[in-house]
Amino acid sequence: MIPSDKVARVTAALPFWLTYILPPLVVLGAVLGGLWVLLPPLATWYMFSALDAALGLNTQNADPQTENRHLVWYRLGVVLWAPVQFVTLFGVIWYLGQSDHLNGWETFGVMFGTGVMTGSVGIVYSHELLHQRNRLERNLGDWLLAMVLYSHFRSEHLLVHHHYVGTPRDPVTARYNEGFHRYYPRVLRDCPRSAFRAEAALLKRRGLPWYHRRNPFWKYAALQLAMLLLSVIVAGWSGLVFFAVQAGVAIWQLELTNYVEHYALTRRYLGDGKYEHVRPHHSWNAAHTATNWLLINLQRHSDHHYKPDRRFPLLQTYHETEAPQLPYGYPVMTMVAMVPPLWRRIMNPKVREWRRTWYPDIKDWGPYNRAETPLPRSVS
Fold first, then answer.
1. Angle formed at CA 352 by CA 349 and CA 357, multiple of 5 degrees
2. Using CA atoms, how far apart are residues 377 and 122, in angstroms rounded to an integer?
C-alpha cells in the first residue's frame, strides 16, 4: 500500500502527464505533413504499448483513503486537458483551413491523429470528470464530450451502464462471439436511445415531462451545436468536415474500449427481473504500467465499477484470482478487436475459463450469449 504522503508527490503524478506530448505531436503533423502526421497514433498506440513491454505490470495500490488535498497534481492534469484540447482542436482546424501545403491524405491524417488524441485522452478524461460531484469538473467533462459529438455518453454511462452492466439492458456489454464490426453499429444505434430513455424516466419520477429544461439533452444539443458552428467560423465548411473526421475517430476509439472492457462478462440472472450485484470479476482488467498512465488507470476497471466516484490515482488493482486479466493493455487489445478471428482466438478461451471458474453450475450459456435473459428491473 502506497501511503498518502508518497501519493501526493509531484514525481508520483508526473507519469500521468505524459499524455501532454500529444497536442504538440498533432500540431507538428499539421505543420510538417508527410509521415509526421502518423506521430499521434504511433505515440498513443505503440509507444505506450512498447513501454508496457519494458516496464511490465504495476500491481501497487495507493491508500484509498487518501484525501483530495493530496491529489492536486493528478486533478490539475485532468482539468487542464479540456482547455488544451479545445485550443489544439480548433487551432488545427483553423490552420488546415487557411493553409494549402498538405494533400488530401495528409489532411485526413492530421484529423485522424487529432481524433486519436480526443478519443484516447479526451473522452477518458471526460469520463473521470463526469463521475465527480464538483460542478466545474462535470461541466468540463461535458465540454470534452461535445468536442466529439458524443454528449449522450454522460447519461448512458451514469444512468445505464453502471446500473445494468453485464445484463441485456446495457448496450455496451459486448456479447460472446459478437465481433466488433457487429457491435459498433449496434451501440451507435442503441446508446443514444437508451440514454434518452433513462433521462426521460428520471424526469418522470420527479413529475416532469421529457422536454423539461432539466433534461440534459438540451445542454448536449447546445454544446454540440456550438462546436459545429465554431468549426464553420474558423475554417468554413471544410472546418465542419475536419471536425467530423476527428469526432468519428474519437467515437470509434471509445467504443473499441467499451467493447474490450466487458466482453462476454455477464451477471447471473437470479429470477424475477433480478441480477446479481456487480462484482470485480465482471470487468476485464490490465495492470500494465504505461497504458495505465495513458488511460489514467481506466484499466483498473473492476475497482471503477466498485467505487465509480473514486479518483483515478486511488483505483485499486486486483489479483487474477479476483478479476479477469487481459494479456495486454487496452491499446493492443483494441487493435486485436479490429480483427474478429484473432480476437476470438485470444479471448474466447479466456471467457470459457472465466465461466468455469465463476459459474460452474450454469450449463446453458445460450441465453447469455444472445442477450436473451430477461431484462433487469429498471432502477427506481
1. 125
2. 33
Does residue 339 sit within a domain?
Answer: yes
What are 214's three cell numbers?
A: 432539466
**Grid cell 498513443 in the structure block, residue:** 44
Distance of alpha carbon 126 from alpha carbon 137, whole angstroms = 9
**Domain total of the chain:** 1
In a domain, 380, yes or no: no
3-class DSSP assignment, residue 252: helix
Cell of 212: 423539461
How many Å apart are CA 161 and CA 304, to the nearest integer?
12
pLDDT-wise least confident of 170-179, 277-286, 343-352, 369-378: 369-378
Q: Is the pLDDT of residue 154 over 60?
A: yes
Strand 274-275 relative to strand 269-271: parallel, antiparallel, unpaired?
Answer: antiparallel
Whether pTM > 0.85 for this model: the answer is yes
C-alpha cell at 52: 508496457
pLDDT tens sequence across 176-200: 999 999 999 999 999 999 999 999 9
Indicate whether 380 pLDDT > 70. no
Residue 376, domain member (yes or no): no
Residue 125's identity, in one-letter code, is Y
3-state secondary structure of 372: coil
- Local confidence band at 1 (pLDDT 50, 70, 90 cut-offs): confident
**pLDDT given for residue 378 in this prediction:** 77
Kindly report the average pLDDT of the chain as a whole number: 97
* Whole-number pLDDT of residue 94: 98
Would the pLDDT of 28 be above 80? Answer: yes
| Angle at the Cα of 51 from the Cα atoms of 45 and 53, rounded to 5 degrees | 100
Helices (H) and strands (E) in the chain, counts: 18, 2
Instruction: Please give the residue range of the domain that contains residue 117.
Output: 4-369
In 154-210, at which residue ranges do the beta strands (DSSP E only) sit?
none
User: Using an 8 Å Cβ cutoff, are 132 and 304 in contact?
Assistant: no
Lookup result for grid cell 424475477: 272
Query: Is residue 285, in this structure, part of any structural domain at all?
Result: yes
Residues 6+ apart with CB under 8 A from 218: none
Separation CA 264–CA 271 (nearest Å): 20
Among positive and negative, which fits the CA dihedral 330, 333, 339, 345? negative
Work out the number of other CB atoms within 10 angstroms of the CB of residue 282: 24
